[in-house]
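=== How it folds ===
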Amino acid sequence: MIGMINGVCLMAGTGEAIVDCGGVGYLLQCGSRTLGNMAEGQPIRLHVETHVRETAITLFGFHTEEERAWFVGLQSVQGVGPKAALAILDIMSPGEILSAASLEDKTAFARASGVGPKLAGRIATELSGKPAPAGRGFQPVFTKPSGGTPNEAERNEGLSDMALRNDAVSALANLGIGQSDALRAVAQAYNTFADDPPLDELVKVALKELSK
């Protein structure tokens, strides 16, 4: 099984890319967000989910472990396959998926290409109250298309909100609040801020949400 690929991008097209690793070109299925951060001839490192079927072995590539974990987690819902999971990840960050699930916001999932209202409702219902899927424990790695060193904002893109939400949920859990209620309160509180707030402010607003 292949869990990570580190090499040079040979091609990034519609829905797929080829990465050269030691002279072998690996074909990976990728979402538009991942492909948008790849450029021909530039180094790239991707977290990989390998699907083995009787007739084919398919590699799916992601810039962060959080995205790969959600790709797997979304497919735990009946009716969600790789195509739908990638479509959701194209329009929502891991933190936004967790928020939509916590609030049972089926409209958010229905915005994804190929995800109808019925399936969107099933996703929102089945993932509601559940924590973010556990990943493999690796830190995300971003490689700039220019080959330069990513700055702090690029390193944290799509990741800082997830870490912040998890810390807030843990803080509420330490106060004796149930996981489902904590997830919902944090999601509601987070949506009241224009940017990532300090952890103590997020927890404070979440507690107010719980008191309503």
Notes: The radius of gyration is 18 Å. Residues 138-158 have pLDDT under 50 and may be disordered.
